[in-house]
């Protein structure tokens, strides 16, 4: 099949199913695995060049609603009658379902089931360890700085926080994304601050920006020097790569408890 992915997380789903060789084009932000760097780039994920996409004669386009604004791409695919699948995972279990859906569409159902099972087993392994830790520090995840957006309860980062033996500071908001004010974060006083600004290069995110805010130096996380810039590709994309991020976070929060845990084979592709 001739596959096109117009979202980084979808490109990663393709890779974990061993189908990267079937990709004929990707969006500009798809950067993993390294082999996709040589493929035709079709524009930013929110502004795909549909003429260029159609010229590649895809058998299937992998679209997504994981980033607000993707609807325009999906409408264009429908108007042109281009075969496509739309993913929209908000949870770790939904990512397992995405693997199965893509596997069925590409004729690799058995392999997709194997990968999904291994993925879910690794999640269960992390859950088992998380239940043994005695402290569960609060984690403030910053997805966007102005206005401030942070993940709520219906979000994979709340799940990842639990798997790593922590607790999302805004787990009590029954939303996927929460717009809040800096004063509320100061009031909640997190143990850790984790900065992962979506769409911003890792090296451009500086804790110094956050430390200029009123009352920042009084926060527990700042006083304990527990402010970290986190990799967008491990925490902000709905693909199995999130559990690699979960393990990295767990080894940061509880190094002794998680030190013996190794990544499953399928994550080492």
TrEMBL record:
This protein's UniProt keywords: Signal
Transmembrane parts of this sequence: none
Keyword Signal: yes
Annotated Fe/B12 periplasmic-binding domain residues: 2-257
Annotated InterPro entries: ABC_Transporter_SBP, ABC_transptr_periplasmic_BD, Vit_B12_bind_prot
Top-rank lineage group of the source organism: Bacteria
PROSITE patterns: FE_B12_PBP (PS50983)
Pfam families on file: Peripla_BP_2
Family recorded in the similarity comment: Belongs to the bacterial solute-binding protein 8 family.
PANTHER family in UniProt: MOLYBDATE-BINDING PROTEIN MOLA, VITAMIN B12-BINDING PROTEIN
Protein name, entry field: Cobalamin-binding protein
